[in-house]
Amino acid sequence: LRSCSPGRARLTNASRHAYLVARFGDIYAQERLDAETLLRTYVSDMEMVQRIIYIAAVESFHAAKMAYRHFKMRVRKTLSLGHSGPESLEDTVLDYIVRHEDLYDVQASVNEVIHSMNTNPKISFPPETDFIVISSLIRELCRVAFSMQTLIPPLDIAFGTDGEIFNETKYRRSFDSDFTAPLVAYHVWPALIENDVVIVKGEAVTKR
């Protein structure tokens, strides 16, 4: 194992938090729209395109969180053999992960996400192509989601379901929504939460 500097994770927590929240916003503003444009060449239905991207975001966070758990368990097991302080083992493990995030096998997570999407009944794709066309969006989401797990407290996305009551604190309505409709027809982008509090609104479509 490479050496690590104790306390790094806590010392850099605020700056990493700010960067990751901004990066999440950038992905929404740029990579999401690039993926939308790309998908429109294969799928004519805009609702299906937006559903595909939302599910890609949800699955990316799920895969990255699972990968982080497994990565952390391996690091803890290795570092515990020779740990003597002064920092707690948990802090030493977190410091190591923050310093060596490049060891995260992001491609394995991308493959998991694409596999999950291929078996998701809510979305479909023309048989001659594959969800791999938006793998660059998935990769960026996995990277950000993994890094967000190293924050204290970690960041996550809010759980959303079709037909839920529209929540002003959680989502913005898409421009093509029925602004008088009380229920979410489908989601465009997830909300970002910290300790169950929304810190970045998601986007949803409301229809009657």
TrEMBL record:
GO biological process: mitochondrial protein catabolic process; mitophagy by internal vacuole formation
An example Gene Ontology CC term for this record: mitochondrial matrix
Chief localization: cytoplasm
The UniProt record lists the keyword Membrane: yes
GO molecular function: lipid binding
Pfam families registered for this protein in UniProt: MIEAP
Record has Cytoplasm as a keyword: yes
Listed InterPro entries: MIEAP, MIEAP_C
Domain Mitochondria-eating protein C-terminal positions: 16-206
Alphabetized UniProt keyword annotations: Coiled coil, Cytoplasm, Lipid-binding, Membrane, Mitochondrion, Mitochondrion outer membrane
Annotated localization: Cytoplasm; Mitochondrion matrix; Mitochondrion outer membrane
UniProt record similarity statement: Belongs to the MIEAP family.
Protein's name according to its UniProt entry: Mitochondria-eating protein
Gene coding for it: Spata18
